[in-house]
Structure formats: structure tokens, C-alpha cells
């Protein structure tokens, strides 16, 4: 387990971190992630055993009994009948994600994944150039790839993606091109049809308890002998933290990451069930409706014993063929507890935050000239929560108490003494120092501009 005592590391640069007089990290730490971030990252870099590595059948049965699929107003609980743990591979795009998020995810999943694959692009989804961050021999690269951050036996693969030609299909296709490389890295790492793949963004994670359930419980979606890829995807119900560990939203869940058996993944499963490009909207894009569960697979040959393999675009898109899994909890009316976490808008500077909204996903071209709250309702909630302003008019609501008083499952990193409140205070100071101030909000600007066309290479 982690050392649970939180004490701020007062500067960046080279540090020697010890527990009971024994050094567990001796190296450099980024200087721009705040005192709380440096201490969190040093905790993540501790040399330590995988504390729950031993498989105890009695405990696994109790764990499996907690998870259920909700379908047609009925809950179907999973079971445990005794099995070797499945191998799990994780893959994510990565860019300017905060070390607060990366360290939190590494702590949550430490020692579980067989391999973790990252793909970094030299352009954003909208095609705007960006400086590669995780370049070999840099501090960021060394911490991510070479420090055993995700566990002593977990292989880390990193690929730098570059595509300078124009993309037919705008930002989504560029994103899917990058995600396709994740599957190629899984293949390189030795993934087989019997293994499980988890496709995430770098601000999402499966909870550790559910991740162990994925390895051990009798989910039919992960049984290579019986799964026919009709409904192979398990969607994680993630609790959303908006910008700060103390801003946990309680009125929504984020239905990612996504989990699929290797047998049903394009490139790992049997190629005789692979969809050709003409059956997709574009090469590497998601499949046409007649080849989806929503479309009853009406275009798929009825004599095929397995349904079409899922590529990376299918992985992330809602087109049927998935089940939502929840943890049975007593504090919610319908018992539908979360099974993962989404760390939304976790950044170290307001400049980084504005750049995200100006150049990624669904861009807001004027973000550089807007207050943080004006840009998006999620950011309005974030600012109101961190600055302790009135939340009644926000789209979503946050936990009305401190995180430590929440009775449900929280990220392991947030159990470190003092971390959550210290980071919350740091975010408050970052916002108060923002030169555009906080006089305007989303409520004052309900029609925040959203780009109708891709930005040019200069971000215009």
C-alpha cells in the first residue's frame, strides 16, 4: 500500500523520497505541478509490492457479488466460480494531461495491467500543431515510460503519431487514426483473443476494485469460448471530478472507459469477421448502422457465427452492443454505484485549459479572450466550486460536503492525507491569479461560440 502521510514537497528538481529511512524515489520531479502534485507523484513512484496480487477466492466471490448489469429494469449480478485472472491491456491518447491525473491513474491501477499503450500526436484533433511532450530522454518521458509508474511488471509502450495531410472527416477521424495505433501497440505487447482491452482517455480510469473484477468475475462479455461479439462492450460508469478532487459531481456519470475482449477487437480477433472499409463511414471510422447492434446487424451475413470485430472508433462510440456495469451501493436509491473515475479539466494553468478548449474536441475559437466560466458550463461549475460561489444555477451539482465525508468509493490517491484539500486550495489560487478575472460566466454568455469548421494550422 501507499504511504498515507501527505507532506508537501516544496520544490521541483531532484528529490530523494524516503519512507522509514529507505529511499523509494531518487530522481527529478516536474517543477510546475504544485506542492501537492509533486508529493502525489512521489507517492506514485514509490517502490512497493502489488498489495492485492494474491487471488483469494472468498474475497473474489464477495467482490463479484457487488457488480451488476442493469438492463430492462432488471439487475443481473455477476458471479465468481474460480479462475485465473485475465490479462488486461490499457490504451490511451496522451497530450497535455496533468501529472495530477496521470499519477492518480497510476496509483489506482498499479501492478494490474499487463501493458499500457500511449499515443501522442504532434497535432490536436482539430489539426493545430503542438509540441510533443513525451520525447525520449525528457523528464516527462522518463517518468511515464521508464519509472515503473504503473507497476514493476507493467510494460509501457509510447508511440508518437504524425499525420500532416488533411484529414477527411475533421477531428474525429484524426482521433480515430491515433486510437487505431493503440490496438497496434497492444498487438506488439502480445495481446491475444483471450485477453481484455480497456480503451480510455488519459483523464479516465476504471476503479481498482472493478478492474480486479474484470480480471476475475464471470462476465459473459469476457468469455472467449462463448462471446460472439454481438454485445461485447462493457461501459464503465465513471464518477466525474470537475477540475479539483473536491469538486465531485453528483448528478451525472461519464460512461467511459470502454472494455472489450480481445476476440472481438479488429486486429486481434479472427480476420474473417473483420469489416472492410466500405462498411464503415470512412477508413478507420465507426461502422455503418446496418453493421451495428442498433441496426440489428442487418447487413451482416446471417451464416457468420461471430458478429463484426470492433475497431478503435467502434470502441468509443454509442452504437449499441454494450452493457453498463454498476457497483451495488446502499447510499443510492437504485444502488447504481460508479465503477470508474473521470478527472475532467484537470490542468495546471489556465493557459493550458484555454488551449484545450480552443484546439481540441469541440473547439471554442475565442477561448483565449473569455473568462474560464464563459467557455463551457462544466468550467462554470468548476470555477463556482473552487471559488466557493453559488452553485444553484449550474447544469450539474457537486458534493455538498468535503470529499472525505463521501460514503462511496473514491480514487486511492485521494485517500492520501491532506492531498485533496491541498490541491483544491492550489486550484483556487490559480483561478484567482487569472488575468481575465471571473466577472463573466456561462450564464452571461449562453451561446458560447463553437467552431463550425476546423481551425487552420495557426489555430485561427
What does this structure look like?
The chain has 460 residues and is an alpha/beta fold. The protein contains eleven helices and 16 strands. Strands 3, 4, 5, 6, 7, 8, 10, 13, 14 and 15 form a ten-stranded mixed beta sheet that branches. Strands 9-16-11-12 form a four-stranded mixed beta sheet. A hairpin with a 7-residue loop joins strand 14 and strand 15 (336-337). Helix 1 (34-44) packs parallel to helix 3 and helix 1 (34-44) packs antiparallel against helix 11. Mean pLDDT is 90; it is low at 5-11 and 449-460.
- The count of DSSP E runs of length 2 or more, i.e. the number of strands, is 16
N-to-C SSE string, H for helix and E for strand: EEHHEEEHEHEHEEHEEEEHEEEHHHH
Rounded to the nearest angstrom, the radius of gyration is 22 Å
The dominant shape is globular
The overall average pLDDT, rounded, is: 90
Largest sheet: 10 strands, mixed
Determine the N-to-C terminus distance.
Answer: 48 Å
What are the segments in which pLDDT stays under 50 over at least 5 consecutive residues?
5-11, 449-460
* Portion in strands: 15-25%
The proportion of residues forming helix, as a percent range, comes to 10-25%
Number of helices: 11
Question: How does the helix and strand content classify structurally?
Answer: alpha/beta
Brief characterization of the structure:
The chain has 460 residues and is of the alpha/beta class. The protein contains 11 helices and 16 strands.
Which helices and strands, and how do they pair?
Blueprint: E1 13-19, E2 22-29, H1 34-44, H2 57-64, E3 67-71, E4 74-77, E5 88-93, H3 99-109, E6 115-121, H4 139-145, E7 155-161, H5 170-188, E8 196-201, E9 204-206, H6 208-216, E10 233-236, E11 238-242, E12 248-254, E13 258-261, H7 312-316, E14 322-328, E15 336-337, E16 340-344, H8 350-359, H9 372-375, H10 377-386, H11 419-432
Parallel strand pairs: 5-6, 5-8, 6-7, 10-14, 11-16
Antiparallel strand pairs: 1-2, 3-4, 3-14, 8-13, 9-16, 10-13, 11-12, 14-15
Helix pairs in contact: 1-3, 1-11
Amino acid at each position: 500500500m501507499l504511504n498515507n502521510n501527505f507532506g508537501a514537497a516544496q520544490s521541483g528538481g531532484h528529490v530523494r523520497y524516503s519512507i522509514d529511512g529507505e529511499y523509494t524515489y531518487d530522481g527529478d520531479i516536474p517543477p510546475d505541478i504544485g506542492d501537492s502534485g509533486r508529493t502525489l507523484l512521489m507517492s506514485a513512484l514509490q517502490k512497493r509490492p502489488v498489495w492485492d496480487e494474491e487471488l483469494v477466492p472468498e474475497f473474489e466471490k464477495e467482490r463479484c457479488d457487488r457488480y451488476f448489469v442493469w438492463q430492462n429494469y432488471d439487475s443481473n449480478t455477476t458471479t465468481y466460480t474460480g479462475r485465473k485472472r485475465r490479462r488486461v491491456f490499457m490504451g490511451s491518447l496522451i497530450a497535455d494531461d496533468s501529472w495530477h491525473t496521470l499519477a492518480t491513474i497510476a496509483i489506482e491501477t498499479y501492478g494490474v495491467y499487463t501493458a499500457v499503450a500511449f499515443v501522442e500526436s504532434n497535432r490536436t484533433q482539430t489539426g493545430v500543431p503542438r509540441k510533443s511532450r513525451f520525447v525520449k530522454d525528457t523528464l516527462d518521458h522518463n517518468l511515464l515510460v521508464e519509472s515503473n509508474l504503473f507497476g514493476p511488471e507493467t510494460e509501457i509502450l509510447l508511440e508518437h503519431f504524425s499525420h500532416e495531410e488533411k484529414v477527411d472527416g475533421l477531428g474525429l477521424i484524426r482521433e480515430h487514426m491515433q486510437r487505431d495505433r493503440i490496438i497496434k501497440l497492444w498487438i506488439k505487447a502480445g495481446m491475444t483473443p483471450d485477453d481484455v482491452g480497456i480503451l480510455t482517455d488519459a483523464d479516465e480510469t476504471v476503479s481498482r476494485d472493478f478492474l480486479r473484477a474484470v480480471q476475475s468475475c464471470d462476465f459473459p462479455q469476457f468469455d472467449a469460448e462463448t462471446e460472439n461479439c454481438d454485445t461485447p462492450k462493457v461501459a464503465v460508469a465513471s464518477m466525474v471530478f470537475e477540475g479539483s478532487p473536491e469538486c465531485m459531481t453528483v448528478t451525472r456519470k461519464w460512461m467511459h472507459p470502454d472494455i472489450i475482449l480481445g476476440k472481438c477487437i479488429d486486429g486481434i480477433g479472427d480476420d474473417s469477421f473483420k469489416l472492410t472499409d466500405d462498411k464503415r463511414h470512412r477508413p478507420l471510422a465507426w461502422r455503418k448502422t446496418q453493421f451495428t447492434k442498433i441496426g440489428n446487424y442487418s447487413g451482416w451475413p446471417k451464416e457468420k457465427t461471430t458478429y463484426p470485430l470492433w475497431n478503435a472508433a467502434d470502441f468509443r462510440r454509442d452504437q449499441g452492443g454494450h452493457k453498463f456495469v454498476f457497483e451495488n451501493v446502499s447510499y443510492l436509491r437504485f444502488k447504481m454505484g460508479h465503477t470508474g473515475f473521470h478527472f475532467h479539466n484537470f490542468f495546471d494553468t489556465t493557459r493550458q485549459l484555454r488551449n484545450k478548449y480552443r484546439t481540441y474536441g469541440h473547439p471554442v475559437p475565442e477561448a483565449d479572450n473569455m473568462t474560464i466560466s464563459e467557455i463551457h458550463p462544466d468550467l462554470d461549475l468548476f470555477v463556482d466550486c473552487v471559488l466557493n460561489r453559488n452553485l444553484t444555477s449550474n447544469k450539474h451539482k457537486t458534493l455538498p460536503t468535503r470529499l472525505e465525508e463521501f460514503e462511496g468509493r473514491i480514487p486511492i490517491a485521494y485517500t492520501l492525507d491532506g492531498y485533496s484539500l491541498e490541491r483544491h486550495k492550489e486550484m483556487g489560487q490559480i483561478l484567482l491569479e487569472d488575468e481575465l478575472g471571473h466577472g463573466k460566466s456561462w450564464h452571461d454568455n449562453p451561446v458560447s461560440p463553437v467552431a463550425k469548421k476546423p481551425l487552420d494550422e495557426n489555430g485561427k
